Amino acid sequence: MLSRIGLSIRRWRRRFSRSEWITHLLGLSTSQQSSHAPGLVLIQIDGLAYPELLKALARGRMPFLKRLIRKEHYRLEHMYPGVPSTTPAVQAELFYGVRQAVPAFGFLVHETQKLGRMYDPEVAALVEKRINTQQRDPLLRGGSCYLSLFKAGTKTGEAHFCPADQGWGPALRKASPMTIAVLIITNIWSLFRTAGLIIIELILSVIDCIRGIIAGQNLLKELMFIPTRVAITILTRELCTMGVKVDITRGLPIIYINLLGYDEQSHRRGPKSAFAHWVLKGIDSAIARIWYAAHSSERRHYDVWIFSDHGQEQTLAYEEVNGRSLGDALSEALSSLPSAPQIQPTTIPKKIRFERSRLFGSEWMDKNSVEQETAEGEDTAPTAVAALGPIAMLYNIDLEGSSRADAAKMMVEQAKVPLVLYLEDPNSPASSPVRGWWKDGPIALPADGRKIMGDEHPYPDQAAEDMASLCRHPDSGDFMMYGWCAGMRQPMTFAMENGSHGGSGPNETHAFALMPEDIQPPDSKLGYWRPQDLRSTARAYLRGARPMKVETHKAPQKILRIMTYNVHSCRGLDGKLSPQRIARVIARYRPDVVALQELDVMRKRTGGLDQAERLARLLAMDLHFQPTVSLKEEHYGDAILTHLPAHLIKKGILPGPPAGKGGLFNPAADESRGAVWVEIEANGKTIQVINTHLGLSRAERLRQVDALLGPEWLSNPRCTGERVLLGDFNALPNSAECKRLGGYLRDAQEQAPRHTPKGTFLKVRIDHIFLSAGLNVNKVRVPRTSLTRQASDHLPLIVDIELSTRGKPS
């Protein structure tokens, strides 16, 4: 009944869904798979470092993310993005599994010998073409992406605000005026909301502009930053959020969105600035809207994973620190070489940050800079420096007999570059060390990695190995210059910005992943994620493989966690049949013993699946199943799952109702009720666990309670030691059945310290855990999360029991 009511409400909501209207009016394709098929939404917060996220959570900037951690059982994890710590490098590793696809965001393309940036469509397409020759299994196949540099397997029209695609542009241009009018009317509130946010952001941008001018910033740059800031922080965020919600409604298998606002503000004002952290409130709101849309989807069972691609360092511009451009400094430092190179002051324009406006077709914002490059022939200079962020690369330099070590030393001592790396022989094997120079003299990587990374770096060895391998990238320069190394008070950037990333600094290489607790990386021993781990875990999830990598179970030392859960044949209130979702509920709480009721085994109504075996396999637990209804090969009943040493003592059918007292139900048609009894060993203690599901009539339940208390079950001579009776009793705490049980056992919810008993079905208590006197309750939970509310018509009841160190009873 409850499921039917919920499904009716969902159908009516779907008829009035704006996303459904957009899908229909634009003729967008929808998923043809079953509604319980797995789906995944990947939300990337561009540029937000793990430490800055902690600050934002503490200051209340991201209340929804805090709610996910506290209420929805998400776990905040560390993530190492690799070096270079740039969006294209992380996206290539995430989408294709290819590390270090690019040496930096801007570099000299070896095929053309021209400087390119990853916002240039032809450069992005060239890099993706290279990647496709190494890996032909893109993560986003059949899905969509928003603000991605790569299409990553999406079909034409499904990559939005991407250098290589037009998104829904063709569909909108083909739409009739009537269709456009209906789209506007049905989304009028969203349009008003976006317009209001743009106005507010415009006011804040003007205030910020005035403050920047007073602080001595360039007037023209401050004025140009206003439209870019509004476009990136508000317009792209709101448009992409609406687009993701539409794609969720369509049931696309995987959806990726990159939220750029924080990264944009951090480059301009610094990652610790109040304006950068203010933007996080809007990002948090966008994530909340996406999350709720995903968990209300009718076409798929979506999971939402949130992560950042890198962090940012609070930096000082090289030009401001040294009073000259890097090109000028290198030309002067290397002037004593036999053939002194003439290096252009800037070969990557300082206005690179405004190029994000090209996502909206506003090439005019960087037109002068681009034209100047072409006119001066900088892109084809024989000796060139690509200087963007904390990494700079020097190309095509002819030392004419001078050693690379001497050149690197000059760059450090005279040009004041903090760290320079190079290959003594470009044809040397990959195992040979990479040489370099810094303030304390020559170094070799990866051996000296910890020396130049420092003790406070979160990933010193990994960063050093990546820096060494980056020198061998075909697009890397002859010399790799870094704006940070250990011992510096503040990192430097080779661009005109206050926040920077791309190098090996401790913050820029310290990203995060916010994941549901049952989702673990392939190698959890590392203690952090890499983008490639995110990719392989996402692929396993989408294949319907085990969604969790259950760690090796350990025998409980002090606390034994038990759970009882009526799983409603694994069919949720949304009508979706999903044993995998039930397994995820259980896995999030990591019980030692699980008592399940209402399991289907090989029944046609639930697809012929052995739900008991499936759950046991997903959770890596042993199974003891008791069928209460058997029709040929179809079964229905209860089970106990555990990872502890256990053996089955008894399973059987309990008495039915007295003749002629079937209550509201015909006794002949009513299902049988049973129990399953398992003896477990925990911390040297023997515990008897009996799982049951009692009948629907009071008279029947009283007979079943008497049987359970009798010589066949709890009063059986073999039922020694501590005892646990649990399950769905279909009886309230003050009922005669529960009072009768209370004379022999204790109700765990009433024994728990500082706990108010909570309902498990329609807010009433009909699922119970009864304990013998020797078992003390440490904690009780009845988790009411989005997942538990959808997965079944009951909520799980979880009890932590204190285990003493006493030996096994005789």
From TrEMBL:
It comes from the Bacteria. One of its GO terms (molecular function) is catalytic activity. GO terms for biological process: GPI anchor biosynthetic process. Pfam families: Exo_endo_phos. SUPFAM superfamilies: Alkaline phosphatase-like (SSF53649), DNase I-like (SSF56219). Residues 563-794 form the Endonuclease/exonuclease/phosphatase domain. GO terms for cellular component: membrane. This is Alkaline phosphatase family protein. It comes from Microbulbifer okhotskensis.
